[in-house]
């Protein structure tokens, strides 16, 4: 199984990558860990003329910290996060989610930026980062901008990125010490893409109460104010007040209507809430 | 060819390589290191797992050029590695292999477990091994073998060297060095020109084969059945209703030739094919049986589209459409059927919607040889999707919320 012939460039810096991506004469694709693009190239589902490898750019492998957020470079891998080579501002959430992605050999190459840019609706970062209100830092011809993860993905494999826009970092908000989070991924086999997923973040100190239903073959369904899910209660026992109908309604509104799938996703959400309470 | 320097099993290698050559092919074909096995070439099975900078990676879904200056280690280079020696003994003692096809990848993954997770229990070992598929053993022996070596490590009878500090970022990726930028060729045009033309499919339609998806849709057109029936007879008006589709040349009696382009994220398809039309005037039923091939991925598709017109109240016509299709090749093999189902369903919905509009108004642009590709993803953009859903609900008669 061989991809079609392509050219390969490995720029040193972001400016170099953007210059290459701006070429109008050839079809250009960025390449990060290659763990999603590689299979598509091998199957000839993607046939770019030029691959621009981002992993030689030091800036994309750096971490920046401010008082209220952490910026993780786009080319930092799932394994880097799993192993704690990135500081933890989420009470262990990111490391736990990273650990559940694919298999170690894939996590050793696959990147957080590539995962979001690929925009597979069943991907773990797509769901979880939307739940915690993370932002995508983008650089392109129009300068630098930050887009909330929930608005970044527009559909299956589609994002707000223009062809020569580069994801440079992911901005992770710092959780309060008493923040509770939960993430549940339903899959038949360990390390597979989810057939249903859900995440919650209950951070009363920052007045954050968010829930997300993911793996809906479209952009994730975000409940930016998830208070109603718990009958407007807060604290350690919100799972006892979980109202599945609120989740069902959100799925209805989003056009995700298959009753069996709705039920499976509502169960995933309940389990995520239970996890949050157990922490 | 791109010049490449790296280290394989401790030996410095400098060799030009085609960028599309994946690391496993480079090792097997250029360096004759055939201990690394290849099976799925999609990253799923783990047979090709090797060590790069001391950590396991798949060698089938990354390309040799990505590993400039990296240190590659295959089974051939691990002969005297103490952990690998202990694993070989344990695999043999515990019957952890039968045909041996998965074994190179299993050994590399097992070595990582022993070094990285000395306290792993059986459940953890199973989780960590889940990215390596074995068709023979049922995993029992493999899990026991890893457990045996872990026990040796905990008992202190296995010498283990301290782990190397690890660079952040994808394993094997170094900081890029400035190079005089080569002049990249522009293969796009040549490739398009060399693309094979549509092969004449021997069989049009399903011909008794089982479809892998089926979609049914009904809508009511505000026109009398005679008129709708006549419309369906004008294939050059019907085809443009399918997003991304166009006829190639005029219809030749019952045979038509067409093209269809769909774009979904990084995937672009460009199907060309042929279809045969059959109509039964008395029953007001028709069938379009088609087959096509995607020039880009080599995927094949065959479909039967049945339509049936039924008089409805107020002199209108209900149109029942059944699409049964069979997709084979890379597109069908790729990933999860949900995405293909979803795409096919949305295409059918758009088709029904365009038909309805076309029946009650002028034809959308028709007959163009190169249709605008159907951008499946763009269609999902929130606002438009919501609007579309209400249209579909109207067409298929689902109640409004
Ligand atoms: C067997 C297997 C199982 C998997 N299971 C899971 C799973 O359970 N859950 C999960 O979430 N994922 C899973 N994955 C996918 C994995 O997480 C990938 O690492 C990830 O989706 C893509 O990251 P990457 O760095 O490899 O990106 P690449 O494959 O290199 O790129 C993916 C896409 O993103 C674009 N891109 C990459 N980086 C950038 C950037 N910085 N800016 C703009 N565009 C960019 C590329 O052009 C390409 O279109 C699995 C993969 C495999 C092979
Ligand atoms: S051959 Fe590489 S994972 Fe299957
Ligand atoms: S021993 Fe045959 S596949 Fe594992």
| Beta fraction of chain B | 15-25%
| Cα separation of the termini of chain A | 46 Å
Number of domains of chain B: 2
Overall mean confidence score, pLDDT of chain B: 83
Largest sheet report of chain A: 5 strands, antiparallel
| Largest interface in this structure | A-B, 81 and 80 residues
Derived structural class of chain B? alpha+beta
Helix content of chain B: 25-40%
**Which CATH architecture of the largest domain in chain A?**
2-Layer Sandwich
Using DSSP, what is the number of strands of chain A? 14
Let me know the CATH homologous superfamily of the largest domain in chain B: START domain
- The total of helices of chain B stands at 11
**Can you summarize the main beta sheet of chain B?**
8 strands, mixed
| Strand order of the biggest β-sheet of chain A | 4-5-10-6-7
Name the descriptors.
heterodimer, A: 279 residues, alpha+beta, Uridine Diphospho-n-acetylenolpyruvylglucosamine Reductase, domain 2, Uridine Diphospho-n-acetylenolpyruvylglucosamine Reductase, domain 3, Enolase-like, domain 1, five-stranded antiparallel sheet, four-stranded antiparallel sheet, 10 helices, 14 strands, globular, B: alpha+beta, Alpha-D-Glucose-1,6-Bisphosphate, Chain A, domain 4, 2 domains, eight-stranded mixed sheet, 25% strand, elongated, disordered C terminus, binds flavin-adenine dinucleotide, binds FE2/S2 (inorganic) cluster
General description of the model:
The complex is a heterodimer of chains A (279) and B (401). Chain A has helices at 14-21, 37-42, 78-82, 93-99, 104-107, 112-118, 124-131, 149-152, 244-253, 259-278, and strands at 7-9, 28-31, 50-53, 63-65, 69-73, 135-140, 143-148, 153-155, 158-159, 166-173, 180-186, 196-203, 208-214, 221-223. With 279 residues, chain A is an alpha+beta fold. Chain A folds into three domains: 7-53, Uridine Diphospho-n-acetylenolpyruvylglucosamine Reductase, domain 2 (2-Layer Sandwich), CATH 3.30.43.10; 58-173, Uridine Diphospho-n-acetylenolpyruvylglucosamine Reductase, domain 3 (2-Layer Sandwich); 180-278, Enolase-like, domain 1, CATH 3.30.390. In chain A, the strands form four sheets. Chain A has a five-stranded antiparallel beta sheet with strand order 4-5-10-6-7. Chain A has a four-stranded antiparallel beta sheet with strand order 11-12-13-14, with helices on both faces. A three-stranded parallel beta sheet of chain A has the order 1-3-2, with helices on one face. In chain A, helix 9 crosses helix 10 (259-278). Chain A is globular and about 55 Å long. Chain A starts with 6 loop residues before the first strand and ends with a helix. The model of chain A has no long low-confidence stretch (mean pLDDT 95). Chain B has helices at residues 23-30, 82-93, 103-116, 122-129, 140-155, 187-194, 225-233, 235-238, 330-333, 337-359, 382-396, and strands at residues 2-8, 11-17, 49-52, 55-58, 71-73, 213-221, 245-247, 255-264, 267-280, 285-294, 300-312, 316-328, 374-375. Chain B folds into two domains: 2-155, Beta-grasp domain (Ubiquitin-like (UB roll), Roll), CATH 3.10.20.30; 198-393, START domain (Alpha-D-Glucose-1,6-Bisphosphate, Chain A, domain 4, 2-Layer Sandwich). The termini of chain B are far apart. Chain B has eleven helices and 13 strands. In chain B, helix 2 (82-93) crosses helix 3 (103-116), helix 2 (82-93) crosses helix 5 (140-155) and helix 4 packs across helix 5 (140-155). The longest helix of chain B has 23 residues, at 337-359. Chains A and B meet through strand 1, helix 2, strand 3 and helix 5 of A and strand 4, helix 4, helix 6, helix 9 and helix 10 of B. The complex binds flavin-adenine dinucleotide (FAD) and FE2/S2 (inorganic) cluster (FES) (2 copies).
């Amino acid at each position: 199984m061989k991809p079609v012939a392509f050219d390969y460039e490995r720029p040193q810096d972001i400016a170099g990558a953007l210059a290459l991506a701006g070429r109008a004469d050839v079809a250009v694709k960025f390449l990060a860990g290659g763990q999603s693009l590689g299979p598509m190239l091998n199957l000839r589902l993607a046939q770019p003329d030029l691959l621009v490898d981002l992993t030689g750019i030091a800036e994309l492998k750096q971490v920046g910290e401010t008082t209220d957020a952490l910026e993780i470079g786009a080319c930092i891998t799932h394994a880097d996060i799993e192993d704690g080579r990135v500081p933890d501002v989420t009470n262990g959430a990111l490391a736990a989610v990273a650990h559940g992605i694919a298999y170690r050999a894939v996590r050793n190459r696959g990147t957080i930026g590539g995962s979001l840019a690929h925009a597979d609706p069943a991907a773990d970062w797509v769901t979880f980062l939307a739940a915690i209100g993370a932002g995508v830092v983008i650089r392109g011809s129009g300068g630098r901008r930050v887009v909330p993860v929930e608005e970044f993905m527009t559909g299956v494999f589609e994002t707000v990125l223009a062809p020569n826009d580069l994801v440079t970092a992911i901005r992770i908000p710092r959780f309060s010490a008493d923040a509770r989070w939960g993430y549940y991924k339903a899959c038949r086999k360990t390390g597979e893409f989810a057939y249903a997923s859900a995440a919650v973040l209950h951070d009363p100190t920052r007045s954050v109460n968010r829930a997300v239903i993911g793996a809906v073959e479209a952009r994730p369904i975000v409940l930016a104010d998830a208070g109603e899910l718990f009958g407007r209660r807060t604290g350690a026992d919100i799972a006892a007040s979980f109202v599945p109908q609120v989740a069902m309604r959100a799925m209805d509104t989003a056009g995700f209507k298959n009753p069996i799938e709705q039920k499976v996703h509502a169960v995933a959400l309940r389990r995520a809430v239970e996890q949050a309470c157990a922490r | 060819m791109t010049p490449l320097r790296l280290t394989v099993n401790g030996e410095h290698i400098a060799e030009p390589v085609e960028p599309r050559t994946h690391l496993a092919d480079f090792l097997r074909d250029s360096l004759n290191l055939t201990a690394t096995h290849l099976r799925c070439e999609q990253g799923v099975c783990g047979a090709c797992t090797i060590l790069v900078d001391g950590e396991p990676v798949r060698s089938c879904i990354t390309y040799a050029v990505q590993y400039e200056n990296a240190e590659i280690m295959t089974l051939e280079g691990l002969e005297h590695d103490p952990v690998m020696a202990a694993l070989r003994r344990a695999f043999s003692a515990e019957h952890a292999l039968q045909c041996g096809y998965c074994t190179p990848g299993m050994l590399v993954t097992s070595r990582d477990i022993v070094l990285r997770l000395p306290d792993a229990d059986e459940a953890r070992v199973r989780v960590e091994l889940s990215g390596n598929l074995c068709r023979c053993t049922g995993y029992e022996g493999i899990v026991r073998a890893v457990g045996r070596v872990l026990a040796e490590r905990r008992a202190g009878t296995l010498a283990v060297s301290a782990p190397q500090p690890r660079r952040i970022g994808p394993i094997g990726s170094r900081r890029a060095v400035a190079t005089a930028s080569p002049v990249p060729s522009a293969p796009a045009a040549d490739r398009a020109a060399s693309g094979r033309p549509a092969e004449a499919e021997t069989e049009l339609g399903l011909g008794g084969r089982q479809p892998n998806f089926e979609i049914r849709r009904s809508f009511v057109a505000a026109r009398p059945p005679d008129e709708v029936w006549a419309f369906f007879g004008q294939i050059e008006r019907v085809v443009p209703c399918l997003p991304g589709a166009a006829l190639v040349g005029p219809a030749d009696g019952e045979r038509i030739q067409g093209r269809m382009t769909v774009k979904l994220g990084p995937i672009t398809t460009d199907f060309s094919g042929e279809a045969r039309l059959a109509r039964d005037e008395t029953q007001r039923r028709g069938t379009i049986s088609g087959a096509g091939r995607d020039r880009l991925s080599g995927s094949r598709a065959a479909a039967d589209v049945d339509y049936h017109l039924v008089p409805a109240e107020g002199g209108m016509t209900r149109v029942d459409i059944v699409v049964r299709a069979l997709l084979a090749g890379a597109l069908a093999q790729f990933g999860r059927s949900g995405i293909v189902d979803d795409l096919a369903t949305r295409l059918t919905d758009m088709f029904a919607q365009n038909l309805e509009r076309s029946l009650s108004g002028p034809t959308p642009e028709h007959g163009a040889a190169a249709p605008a590709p159907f951008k499946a993803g763009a269609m999902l953009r929130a606002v438009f999707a919501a609007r579309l859903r209400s249209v579909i609900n109207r067409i298929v008669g689902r109640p409004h919320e």
